[in-house]
TrEMBL record:
Annotated Pfam families: AllG (PF06545)
Taxonomic lineage from the root: Bacteria, Bacillati, Actinomycetota, Actinomycetes, Streptosporangiales
Gene3D superfamilies membership: conserved protein of unknown function from Enterococcus faecalis V583, Enterococcus faecalis V583 domain, v583 domain like
InterPro entries according to UniProt: AllG-like (IPR009499), OXTCase_su_AllG_h-dom (IPR024033)
Protein known as: DUF1116 domain-containing protein
Length: 461
């Protein structure tokens, strides 16, 4: 508390002392409340060095400027073996690199399902034995290959990928096609219905979408995302408007390119409000990748989870991962499921938060609270708090309820350390037992140690 009694009535500034502030209010003492939080514990020396780095301000302006300038366009749909060079026995997964031994239930379930889908095993038991032995099997992070995947994020050679190109910087990113909700591979389910759906997606959905995109030309995803935000989406756990906008763009081309399959393809997309999510993730990935490799920059260019670890990558620190244990989301559960059934956080879909969407844009999507829990005021508070740890406001992604203010974008590890605020993430919840599928949705906080480790590393470059 600081008093200034040079002129007139005493003025009181309160910092964090809520009880004292309320007592002063009852006495009608004029005061001003200042929001302040201590830095994350133990970060003061590293924080001082990073903030004093003469490169930081310019480097961050360059990195976030590239992110904001990106113009993601959906340019194609291709099999992973063609787009990514995947061979039999090679699999990409969500989050930082992980081995079978450390993999969580849903990650193991998705790997088993991918083995069955690719014909590398006849039974789940055989698939588990091969994966455990490692013979002829290669696992790697999607992020190492310009790719992102929701939840377990499994990509195998026969899966079809959305190809998104940055018309501004020329980069390319990929994401698989969305299966829908419930018992699906990305949540670790691998029953016969899961494999059958994947085969239909490979034989029908992928080729039809490829022909349609080729026919109608590149689709401007940045514009679709901007429109969807103004229609009530936040582009992570709510994609209803974005999916509808996408269907409106490509439906005529689907009918023209594949009249024999048009009805079943459109029916599938229409029944899946999350269909746009994967296109939005690839758009976010190519935008974040544009900001990579700026020496001295403390901008986060990736946040991702593998169901065991939560990891981040930073523009000025190359491809290094900084990790901590993934937390269990707090949210709403389906049917008879509860917190004991939940796996720790999983998926590459936090690439949306990395680029100012998802949890950072919840103020644009008040209906999201019915899916992840809380009140509308919580969604607004989540978004407004993120302006404290970001470097910019997105010029295209605007929130009507905040006077068309741009979404907070460009997470700065130094600002995270200085404020003690961690990024807000909203997410689906996978069942911890392999084969279960989705059990709910909610909010989760990243581990602070991922950001403090990155901060320490910035001191040495």
């Amino acid at each position: 508390m600081t008093l200034s009694m040079l002129y007139g009535e005493p003025r009181v500034i309160t910092v964090g002392a809520q009880v004292l502030g309320e007592a002063l209010d009852r006495q009608a003492v004029p005061r001003r409340e200042v929001g302040w939080r201590p830095p994350l514990p133990g970060t003061a020396p590293a924080l001082a060095r990073v903030l004093a780095d003469p490169r930081r301000e310019s480097a961050n302006a360059t990195a976030v400027g590239r992110m904001l300038a990106a113009r993601p366009m959906l340019t194609g749909v291709r099999p992973a073996r063609e787009a990514l060079g995947l061979a039999a026995g090679e699999f990409f997964h969500a989050g930082p690199p992980i081995s079978w031994e450390r993999a969580s239930g849903p990650m193991r379930g998705a790997l088993v399902g991918a083995m069955l889908f690719e014909g590398l095993a006849a039974t789940p038991e055989e698939a588990e034995d091969r994966l455990a032995s490692g013979a002829g099997i290669t696992l790697d992070s999607c992020h190492h290959h310009r790719t992102v995947g929701p939840m377990a994020g499994l990509v195998s050679p026969s899966m079809w990928m959305l190809e998104v190109t940055d018309a501004e910087h020329g980069g390319t990113a990929y994401c698989s096609l969305n299966e829908g909700l419930g018992k699906v591979l990305r949540y670790g389910a691998y029953g016969p219905e899961v494999i059958e759906r994947l085969r239909w997606m490979g034989e029908v959905l992928g080729p039809v979408l490829a022909a349609a995109v080729e026919r109608c030309g590149p689709l401007d995803l940045r514009t679709l995302i901007a429109q969807a935000l103004q229609m009530g989406d936040e582009l992570h756990n709510r994609n209803r408007a974005a999916t509808s906008l996408l269907v409106r763009e490509i439906a005529p081309a689907i009918v023209e390119a594949a009249p024999d399959h048009a009805a079943e393809v459109l029916r599938f997309i229409n029944g899946n409000d999350h269909f746009f999510l994967n296109a939005g993730m690839a758009a976010a990935k190519v935008s974040a990748d544009a900001a990579r490799g700026v020496p001295g920059s403390s901008l986060v260019v990736a946040m991702a989870r593998n169901g065991t670890d939560f990891g981040i990558q930073v523009s000025g620190l190359g491809d290094r991962w900084f990790t901590g244990p993934a937390g269990v989301p707090d949210g709403l559960y389906l049917g008879g499921y509860g917190p004991d059934d939940a796996n720790p956080d999983i998926g590459d879909s936090t690439i949306t938060e990395t680029t100012g969407l998802g949890g950072f844009a919840m103020a644009a999507a008040p209906a999201i609270v019915r899916f992840v829990g809380g009140e509308v005021s919580d969604a607004v508070a989540a978004t407004t708090s993120m302006y404290e740890i970001t470097l910019a406001e997105h010029p295209a992604y605007q929130i009507p309820g905040l006077g068309f203010r741009g979404t907070p974008v460009g997470i700065d590890v130094a600002l995270v350390a200085r404020t003690g605020l961690l990024p807000v993430v909203n997410t689906g919840i996978a069942g911890r037992v392999a084969g279960t599928g989705q059990v709910g949705a909610g909010l989760v906080s990243p581990p602070a140690e991922a950001f403090t480790a990155a901060l320490d590393a910035l001191c040495d470059v």
